[in-house]
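Input/output pair, single chain:
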Amino acid sequence: MINIKDINRSGEMEVFTRVVNAGTFSEAARQLDMSPSAVSKLIARMEARLGARLLHRSTRRLELTAEGERFNSECLRILELIDCAERDIANVSKPSGLIQVNANLPFGLHCLLPLLPDFFAAYPDITLNVELTDTVVDLLERRADIAIRTGPMKESSLVQRRLGESRMLTVASPGYIARCGQPQNLDDLQRHNRLSFGFHRHSQAWVFRGTDGQRIEIEPKGNVLLSDGESMRRSALAGLGIARLANFHIHDDLQAGSLVPVLQAYDSGETEAIHAVFIGPGQQLPHRVRVFIDFLLDKVSAQLANGRV
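Output:
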Protein backbone atom coordinates (compact mmCIF):
# COMPACT_ATOMS: atom_id res chain seq x y z
CA MET A 1 0.00 0.00 0.00
CA ILE A 2 1.32 3.44 -0.92
CA ASN A 3 1.82 5.85 1.99
CA ILE A 4 0.34 9.20 0.99
CA LYS A 5 3.27 10.94 2.76
CA ASP A 6 5.58 9.39 0.18
CA ILE A 7 3.72 10.90 -2.77
CA ASN A 8 5.04 14.15 -4.24
CA ARG A 9 1.81 15.06 -5.97
CA SER A 10 2.90 18.41 -7.36
CA GLY A 11 6.05 16.77 -8.72
CA GLU A 12 4.00 14.03 -10.39
CA MET A 13 1.69 16.65 -11.89
CA GLU A 14 4.71 18.52 -13.27
CA VAL A 15 5.98 15.30 -14.91
CA PHE A 16 2.55 14.43 -16.30
CA THR A 17 1.95 17.86 -17.87
CA ARG A 18 5.46 17.83 -19.30
CA VAL A 19 4.77 14.44 -20.94
CA VAL A 20 1.52 15.76 -22.40
CA ASN A 21 3.23 18.85 -23.78
CA ALA A 22 6.27 16.97 -25.12
CA GLY A 23 4.22 14.18 -26.71
CA THR A 24 6.69 11.40 -25.84
CA PHE A 25 8.23 9.92 -22.72
CA SER A 26 11.73 10.32 -24.15
CA GLU A 27 11.39 14.06 -24.87
CA ALA A 28 9.78 14.73 -21.48
CA ALA A 29 12.56 12.72 -19.82
CA ARG A 30 15.20 14.80 -21.63
CA GLN A 31 13.58 18.06 -20.47
CA LEU A 32 13.27 16.79 -16.90
CA ASP A 33 16.73 15.19 -16.78
CA MET A 34 15.19 11.80 -16.03
CA SER A 35 15.34 8.44 -17.79
CA PRO A 36 12.41 7.51 -20.10
CA SER A 37 11.76 4.38 -18.02
CA ALA A 38 11.53 6.45 -14.82
CA VAL A 39 8.99 8.77 -16.47
CA SER A 40 6.97 5.82 -17.79
CA LYS A 41 6.92 4.10 -14.39
CA LEU A 42 5.85 7.33 -12.66
CA ILE A 43 2.87 7.75 -15.02
CA ALA A 44 1.95 4.09 -14.53
CA ARG A 45 1.98 4.56 -10.72
CA MET A 46 -0.28 7.61 -11.06
CA GLU A 47 -2.75 5.67 -13.19
CA ALA A 48 -2.76 2.79 -10.73
CA ARG A 49 -3.39 5.12 -7.79
CA LEU A 50 -6.11 7.05 -9.61
CA GLY A 51 -7.73 3.90 -11.04
CA ALA A 52 -7.95 5.44 -14.52
CA ARG A 53 -5.95 5.37 -17.72
CA LEU A 54 -4.63 8.82 -18.53
CA LEU A 55 -2.71 8.17 -21.73
CA HIS A 56 -3.08 5.98 -24.80
CA ARG A 57 0.40 4.77 -25.71
CA SER A 58 1.43 4.12 -29.29
CA THR A 59 4.75 3.69 -31.04
CA ARG A 60 4.46 7.16 -32.57
CA ARG A 61 2.79 9.43 -30.00
CA LEU A 62 0.95 9.57 -26.70
CA GLU A 63 -2.69 10.60 -26.69
CA LEU A 64 -4.80 11.72 -23.74
CA THR A 65 -7.86 9.78 -22.69
CA ALA A 66 -11.00 11.66 -21.65
CA GLU A 67 -9.91 11.25 -18.01
CA GLY A 68 -6.42 12.37 -18.98
CA GLU A 69 -7.83 15.54 -20.60
CA ARG A 70 -9.67 16.49 -17.39
CA PHE A 71 -6.70 15.56 -15.21
CA ASN A 72 -4.25 17.56 -17.36
CA SER A 73 -6.50 20.63 -17.16
CA GLU A 74 -6.70 20.36 -13.36
CA CYS A 75 -2.94 19.76 -13.06
CA LEU A 76 -2.19 22.92 -15.05
CA ARG A 77 -4.57 24.93 -12.84
CA ILE A 78 -3.05 23.57 -9.61
CA LEU A 79 0.53 24.12 -10.76
CA GLU A 80 -0.33 27.71 -11.68
CA LEU A 81 -1.79 28.24 -8.19
CA ILE A 82 1.42 26.87 -6.66
CA ASP A 83 3.50 29.23 -8.81
CA CYS A 84 1.32 32.18 -7.77
CA ALA A 85 1.63 31.25 -4.09
CA GLU A 86 5.43 31.04 -4.37
CA ARG A 87 5.59 34.38 -6.19
CA ASP A 88 3.46 36.00 -3.47
CA ILE A 89 5.72 34.67 -0.72
CA ALA A 90 8.81 35.81 -2.64
CA ASN A 91 7.36 39.32 -2.86
CA VAL A 92 6.55 39.35 0.88
CA SER A 93 10.14 38.37 1.63
CA LYS A 94 11.35 41.55 -0.05
CA PRO A 95 12.15 44.09 2.68
CA SER A 96 9.22 46.44 3.20
CA GLY A 97 7.51 48.46 5.90
CA LEU A 98 8.44 51.21 8.34
CA ILE A 99 11.77 51.59 10.18
CA GLN A 100 12.01 54.04 13.09
CA VAL A 101 15.56 55.49 13.07
CA ASN A 102 17.12 57.72 15.69
CA ALA A 103 20.48 59.40 15.06
CA ASN A 104 22.45 62.29 16.50
CA LEU A 105 22.40 65.50 14.50
CA PRO A 106 25.97 65.42 13.13
CA PHE A 107 25.81 61.84 11.86
CA GLY A 108 22.24 62.25 10.64
CA LEU A 109 22.88 65.44 8.67
CA HIS A 110 26.34 64.71 7.30
CA CYS A 111 26.34 60.92 6.87
CA LEU A 112 22.90 59.34 7.07
CA LEU A 113 20.67 61.66 5.02
CA PRO A 114 23.10 61.86 2.05
CA LEU A 115 23.10 58.03 1.88
CA LEU A 116 19.32 57.63 1.74
CA PRO A 117 18.87 58.02 -2.05
CA ASP A 118 21.08 54.94 -2.54
CA PHE A 119 19.15 53.07 0.15
CA PHE A 120 15.76 53.81 -1.39
CA ALA A 121 17.05 52.87 -4.82
CA ALA A 122 17.88 49.42 -3.43
CA TYR A 123 14.84 49.08 -1.14
CA PRO A 124 11.94 51.12 -2.55
CA ASP A 125 9.33 49.39 -0.38
CA ILE A 126 10.87 50.53 2.92
CA THR A 127 9.81 53.74 4.67
CA LEU A 128 12.13 55.49 7.14
CA ASN A 129 10.95 57.70 9.98
CA VAL A 130 14.17 59.55 10.88
CA GLU A 131 14.48 61.44 14.18
CA LEU A 132 17.63 63.52 14.62
CA THR A 133 18.54 64.53 18.17
CA ASP A 134 21.67 64.60 20.31
CA THR A 135 19.60 63.44 23.28
CA VAL A 136 20.15 59.75 24.03
CA VAL A 137 16.68 58.24 23.71
CA ASP A 138 15.15 55.09 25.14
CA LEU A 139 14.53 52.85 22.14
CA LEU A 140 11.57 51.11 23.76
CA GLU A 141 9.97 54.36 24.87
CA ARG A 142 10.38 55.95 21.41
CA ARG A 143 9.57 52.65 19.68
CA ALA A 144 12.74 53.08 17.65
CA ASP A 145 14.06 50.14 15.66
CA ILE A 146 17.63 51.40 15.49
CA ALA A 147 19.71 54.27 16.88
CA ILE A 148 23.05 55.61 15.67
CA ARG A 149 25.28 56.72 18.54
CA THR A 150 28.77 58.15 18.61
CA GLY A 151 31.33 58.16 21.39
CA PRO A 152 31.79 55.77 24.34
CA MET A 153 29.04 53.19 24.76
CA LYS A 154 27.61 52.36 28.16
CA GLU A 155 26.89 48.79 29.19
CA SER A 156 23.30 47.92 28.28
CA SER A 157 21.06 45.14 27.03
CA LEU A 158 21.07 46.70 23.56
CA VAL A 159 22.89 44.95 20.73
CA GLN A 160 25.71 47.06 19.27
CA ARG A 161 27.14 46.93 15.75
CA ARG A 162 30.26 49.02 15.25
CA LEU A 163 29.93 50.99 12.01
CA GLY A 164 33.37 52.54 12.22
CA GLU A 165 35.27 55.31 13.95
CA SER A 166 36.09 58.90 13.08
CA ARG A 167 39.17 60.87 13.96
CA MET A 168 38.71 63.77 16.37
CA LEU A 169 40.14 67.11 15.23
CA THR A 170 40.68 70.45 16.93
CA VAL A 171 39.60 73.20 14.53
CA ALA A 172 38.81 76.87 14.18
CA SER A 173 37.71 79.20 11.42
CA PRO A 174 40.29 81.33 9.56
CA GLY A 175 38.39 84.39 10.82
CA TYR A 176 38.80 83.34 14.45
CA ILE A 177 42.53 82.70 13.97
CA ALA A 178 42.99 86.06 12.25
CA ARG A 179 41.27 87.79 15.16
CA CYS A 180 42.59 85.78 18.14
CA GLY A 181 45.83 84.26 16.85
CA GLN A 182 47.00 80.72 16.10
CA PRO A 183 47.74 78.69 19.28
CA GLN A 184 51.29 77.36 19.01
CA ASN A 185 51.24 75.02 21.99
CA LEU A 186 48.88 73.63 24.62
CA ASP A 187 49.62 76.51 27.01
CA ASP A 188 48.42 78.92 24.32
CA LEU A 189 45.20 76.93 24.05
CA GLN A 190 44.34 77.79 27.64
CA ARG A 191 43.94 81.44 26.61
CA HIS A 192 41.50 80.70 23.77
CA ASN A 193 37.73 80.37 23.78
CA ARG A 194 37.06 76.62 23.77
CA LEU A 195 33.53 75.70 22.72
CA SER A 196 31.84 73.11 24.94
CA PHE A 197 28.52 71.39 25.50
CA GLY A 198 25.97 72.49 28.04
CA PHE A 199 24.87 68.93 28.85
CA HIS A 200 26.62 66.12 30.70
CA ARG A 201 28.80 63.86 28.59
CA HIS A 202 30.89 60.81 29.50
CA SER A 203 33.89 63.11 29.17
CA GLN A 204 34.26 66.54 27.62
CA ALA A 205 38.06 66.59 27.91
CA TRP A 206 40.08 67.22 24.75
CA VAL A 207 42.87 64.67 24.49
CA PHE A 208 46.33 65.69 23.20
CA ARG A 209 49.76 64.10 23.10
CA GLY A 210 52.63 66.10 24.62
CA THR A 211 56.07 66.40 23.02
CA ASP A 212 57.24 63.63 25.36
CA GLY A 213 54.37 61.36 24.26
CA GLN A 214 52.44 61.89 27.46
CA ARG A 215 48.62 61.99 27.30
CA ILE A 216 47.31 65.44 28.17
CA GLU A 217 43.65 66.30 28.78
CA ILE A 218 42.34 69.84 28.55
CA GLU A 219 38.80 70.75 29.56
CA PRO A 220 36.95 72.99 27.10
CA LYS A 221 36.06 76.30 28.69
CA GLY A 222 34.60 79.39 27.10
CA ASN A 223 31.69 81.77 26.92
CA VAL A 224 29.47 79.56 24.72
CA LEU A 225 27.77 76.33 25.85
CA LEU A 226 25.98 74.39 23.14
CA SER A 227 23.20 71.81 23.03
CA ASP A 228 24.39 69.65 20.13
CA GLY A 229 27.26 68.90 17.78
CA GLU A 230 25.79 70.71 14.79
CA SER A 231 25.41 73.90 16.82
CA MET A 232 29.08 73.56 17.82
CA ARG A 233 30.14 73.18 14.19
CA ARG A 234 28.16 76.27 13.17
CA SER A 235 29.56 78.24 16.10
CA ALA A 236 33.09 77.32 15.01
CA LEU A 237 32.28 78.37 11.43
CA ALA A 238 30.98 81.68 12.78
CA GLY A 239 34.32 82.29 14.50
CA LEU A 240 33.08 82.00 18.08
CA GLY A 241 35.94 79.81 19.23
CA ILE A 242 37.96 76.60 18.84
CA ALA A 243 36.03 73.33 18.65
CA ARG A 244 36.78 69.62 18.91
CA LEU A 245 34.75 67.70 16.32
CA ALA A 246 34.74 64.40 14.44
CA ASN A 247 36.18 64.29 10.94
CA PHE A 248 32.92 62.96 9.42
CA HIS A 249 31.18 66.05 10.78
CA ILE A 250 33.54 68.67 9.33
CA HIS A 251 35.13 66.90 6.36
CA ASP A 252 33.52 69.23 3.81
CA ASP A 253 34.39 72.32 5.89
CA LEU A 254 38.04 71.27 5.99
CA GLN A 255 38.04 70.65 2.24
CA ALA A 256 36.51 74.09 1.65
CA GLY A 257 38.95 75.81 4.05
CA SER A 258 36.12 77.25 6.17
CA LEU A 259 37.60 75.35 9.13
CA VAL A 260 41.29 74.60 9.62
CA PRO A 261 43.07 72.24 12.06
CA VAL A 262 44.99 73.73 14.98
CA LEU A 263 47.71 72.22 17.20
CA GLN A 264 48.31 69.32 14.78
CA ALA A 265 51.73 68.71 16.37
CA TYR A 266 49.88 67.64 19.53
CA ASP A 267 47.31 65.42 17.81
CA SER A 268 46.70 62.29 19.92
CA GLY A 269 45.06 60.26 17.15
CA GLU A 270 41.92 60.01 19.28
CA THR A 271 38.87 58.62 17.49
CA GLU A 272 35.14 58.55 18.16
CA ALA A 273 33.36 55.24 17.64
CA ILE A 274 30.12 55.08 15.66
CA HIS A 275 27.65 52.34 16.60
CA ALA A 276 24.27 51.14 15.45
CA VAL A 277 22.31 49.96 18.47
CA PHE A 278 19.07 48.02 18.50
CA ILE A 279 17.00 45.68 20.60
CA GLY A 280 18.36 42.21 19.80
CA PRO A 281 19.22 39.51 19.29
CA GLY A 282 20.22 40.10 15.69
CA GLN A 283 18.70 36.92 14.27
CA GLN A 284 15.26 38.10 15.42
CA LEU A 285 15.47 41.44 13.66
CA PRO A 286 12.85 42.15 11.02
CA HIS A 287 14.28 41.75 7.53
CA ARG A 288 13.84 45.47 6.79
CA VAL A 289 15.92 46.48 9.85
CA ARG A 290 18.63 43.93 9.10
CA VAL A 291 19.12 45.18 5.53
CA PHE A 292 19.27 48.78 6.79
CA ILE A 293 22.02 47.93 9.27
CA ASP A 294 23.94 46.00 6.60
CA PHE A 295 23.57 48.97 4.26
CA LEU A 296 25.04 51.32 6.88
CA LEU A 297 27.94 48.95 7.56
CA ASP A 298 28.79 48.85 3.87
CA LYS A 299 28.44 52.58 3.22
CA VAL A 300 30.21 53.83 6.35
CA SER A 301 33.09 51.46 5.56
CA ALA A 302 33.27 53.02 2.10
CA GLN A 303 33.34 56.50 3.67
CA LEU A 304 36.18 55.34 5.93
CA ALA A 305 38.10 54.14 2.89
CA ASN A 306 37.90 57.51 1.15
CA GLY A 307 38.67 59.51 4.29
CA ARG A 308 35.27 61.09 4.78
CA VAL A 309 34.89 59.45 8.20
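The domain at 4-92 is CATH 1.10.10.10 (Arc Repressor Mutant, subunit A). The CA atoms of residues 10 and 50 lie 15 Å apart.
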